Amino acid sequence: MTLPLTVLPEVAEALANGTPVVALESTIITHGMPFPQNVEMARSVEDVIREGGAVPATIAIMNGQIHIGLSSEELDRLGQTPDAMKLSRADLAVGLTSGRTGATTVAATMICARLAGIDVFATGGIGGVHRGAETTFDISADLPELGQTAVTVVAAGAKAILDLPKTLEVLETMGVPVIAYGQDAFPAFWSRDSGMRAPLRMDTPAEIAAAHLMRAKLGVPGGQLVANPIAEEDEIPAAVINPAIEAALADAERQGIAAKEVTPFLLDHIFRSTEGKSLASNIQLVLNNARLATKIATEITNQR
Ligand code: PSU
Ligand code: MN
Questions:
Q1: I need a labelling partner for 170 at 20 to 30 A (CA). Which of 136, 137, 159, 251 fits?
Q2: What percentage of the chain carries pLDDT values higher than 90?
Q3: What's the mean pLDDT when you consider all of the chain?
Q4: Which residues pair with 60 in a beta bridge?
Q5: Does residue 159 carry a catalytic annotation?
Q6: CA–CA separation, 225 vs 211, rounded Å?
Q7: What is the pTM of this model?
């Protein structure tokens, strides 16, 4: 049995030549945003990475294969697959053997990126410790993945739908360096400042790349979380986002939403209640993260 890895020719060539590659997840496409904005977002993120001199590799599961890089048609099809599976570490293998179409979460995308030899991955926000986790035990598999898989993940922090102090505590326990980019505060997705200080701060892609390579040299497993604040002009005021978050959480509780459905339910609820405002900033911050990831990937190839 061979590894079911299908690498897009453009990506295979880049990996062979030492051209920087940036991985992208697909759950954000199938479960994080509505069609057609999801596909438009996925295309513009790929464009931004190419403009920066790297090659994008959107990762998804199709026909029993891990696809590292999607063609334009595949991206389009994925964005219109409402019953795509949401695959994390727990169900990635089952998703593959089922032959169905599956989107990869941050955790599963990290696993696939590592298998393909990709060091850097850009997304919007990571999963984390949910509010009320002390009774539900709902902690995203993204956190232990960051503790064991050697990929540097660039995100805009974590959404305030989560319990951010507990999320930072678990990341510390898992041995994950949480690096705020260009500021002291840990960013909270739609806003630049969560009110908490990030454990680490770095101001250049070169420093982040050096730390990535040093971790490998030390033989310490796991990746890094780079928390890149959203641009000021794209922030959503707390007065708009906080009520939307509270309403989403209350509805999830009322409807008994649990397990894998929680995050997609909250994201969709907030998107609808802010009449698309949250979606517009969500798209901008993903682009912002892709730009930084491109610079980090370039530095890693230069310093290696
Ligand atoms: N958080 C976001 N946007 C997202 C996700 C999380 O702000 O799109 C997606 C990512 O794919 C992440 C997954 O890996 O949800 C986490 O799901 P869960 O909380 O069920 O682990
Ligand atoms: Mn969960």
A1: 251
A2: 96
A3: 97
A4: 67, 103
A5: yes
A6: 11
A7: 0.98
Counting ligand 1 atoms within 8 A of each CB, the residue from 126, 270, 284 with the most, and so the one to mutate, is 126
295 a catalytic residue: no
Tens digit of pLDDT for each residue in 22-61? 999 999 999 999 999 999 999 999 999 999 999 999 999 9
Tens-digit pLDDT profile for residues 75-105: 999 999 999 999 999 999 999 999 999 999 9
The predicted structure's pLDDT at residue 40: 98
Ligand 1: residue of 24, 26, 27, 281 to mutate (most ligand atoms within 8 A of CB) is: 27
Q: What is the mean pLDDT of residues 9-23?
A: 98
Q: Is residue 28 within 6 Å of ligand 1 at its C-beta?
A: yes
What is the spatial distance between Cα 149 and Cα 239, in angstroms, rounded to a whole number? 37
CATH of domain 1-118: 3.40.1790.10
Nearest CA to ligand 1 atom 7: 125
The reply to whether domains 1-118 and 119-304 share a CATH topology is yes
- Secondary structure class of 9 (helix, strand, coil): helix
Q: Is the CB of 130 under 6 A from ligand 1?
A: no
* DSSP reduced 3-state for 185: strand
CATH of 119-304, one of 3.40.1790.10, 1.10.565.10, 2.60.120.10, 3.30.1440.10: 3.40.1790.10
133 CA distance to ligand 2 centroid (A)? 9
pLDDT in tens, 150-174: 999 999 999 989 999 999 999 999 9
Count of helices and strands (H, E) across the chain: 13, 11
Q: Hey, where are the domains in the chain?
A: 1-118, 119-304
Eight-class DSSP state of 130: B
Interval between CA 22 and ligand 2 midpoint (Å)? 26
